[in-house]
Amino acid sequence: VRGADIVDGRGRPVVLRGVAFGNDVWTNVRLPRRHHDETDYQRVAAMGMNAVRFYMNYRTFENDAAPGQYLADGWQWLDDNIAWAKRNGVYLVLNMHVPPGGFQSLGNGKALWDRPELQERLIALWTAIARHCKGEPAVAGYDLLNEPVVTKAASQWQDLAGRIAAAIRAADGEHMLFVERLNSIAGDWKEDGDRNFFRIADSNTVYEFHFYKPFHFTHQGASWVPFTAEDVRYPDGRAEVEWFLLDRKAGTEASPKLPPGDS
Fold first, then answer.
1. Burial of 262 by CB count in 10 Å (0-12 exposed, 13-18 middle, 19+ buried)?
2. Which of 228, 239, 245, 261 is most buried (most C-beta within 10 Å)?
3. SS3 of residue 32 by DSSP
4. In 10 A of CB 215, how many CB atoms?
5. Cα–Cα distance for residue pair 8/26, rounded to 1 Å
6. pLDDT digits (tens, 9 = 90+) for 20-69
7. Closest residue by Cα to residue 112 from 166, 144, 65, 157
């Protein structure tokens, strides 16, 4: 990170444009060999993109019965993806989507915040990943934790993010860190004056948020999001999506409409 820019090893600005590879994290497939292969990196590049947000489940690298004893086939899986990405001109953003203690986004994974030993496991795992990826230009950086939902106070995530960052920096001084805003505190999804962002003591950091509007389109493949003619009245030329531009009160009959289509 240089000022407001992301730059490559030669100092040239880079815009990361890409998609996420989910890697079956929600179904806890430990080694998602059937999820994708190099063909999918070729497709990413062919569509004009240069980045993949690569979801990781801690189970790929360690077993709960033997924490800290990292698994060779997990490292091989990561190395294969790095090689596929590199051959196709694609950067990987390694995202810890499922940490020890569980997936965060929907208010789960409380154990991470209430059990110090799970935080230490997460810090140790990130340290090992940073050592493994040090000097690898196909890795854009390390996304410390997906959509944190703490149990008591915002300081829980700020403190843990700082500790993870310090541990990574002891192993790898070059790769970017990605630090996400806090999602919620004990089920309360309100935002503070900083929109739940905070800074850590590392200038080589990208501060990340997830923007899901219009929701019916961003999550149209999810089983819990309806996507029917009644919801969006598509493809008859209109796309009425709830709370789109409501903050500006700009959604009117005169607003631009999507063109007719069949997708």
1. exposed
2. 239
3. coil
4. 16
5. 32
6. 999 999 899 999 999 999 999 999 999 999 999 999 999 999 999 999 99
7. 157
